[in-house]
Amino acid sequence: MLKGKVYLLQTCNTCKRILKQVKIFGDFDVRDVKKYPLSTEEIDDLAQKAGGYERIFNKQSQKYRQLGLKDKVLSEADYRKLLAEEYTFLKRPVFLIDDKIFIGNSNSTVDLLTKYLVSNK
């Protein structure tokens, strides 16, 4: 059984549903990013694995709309700063397995995650 990490919100029903769906294929250390916020080093590591801070940034969050960020041009440094300041800006869930990263809750991401877990079972 594969081992990995998952970053999520314990209160998020979508995150819980996805974790339940894939748990039969792997063993995951679960980290609630609200209770245990990510350090800047961890954010840097996730961004490096994902190919940039924008790729792990949640543009669907209420805070994103409240702050009017959709109307601004943000740099990678801006995304990094915002991710460090507010846990809701992390696109969730984030699964780390081996050297792979799966970000978000889109059907295509969950399908890729499931296929990876099944093929490496």
TrEMBL record:
Source taxon at top rank: Bacteria
Gene3D superfamilies documented for this protein: Glutaredoxin
InterPro entries linked: Arsenate_reductase-like, Thioredoxin-like_sf
Family annotation (Pfam families): ArsC
Similarity comment: Belongs to the ArsC family.
Protein name, as recorded: Arsenate reductase
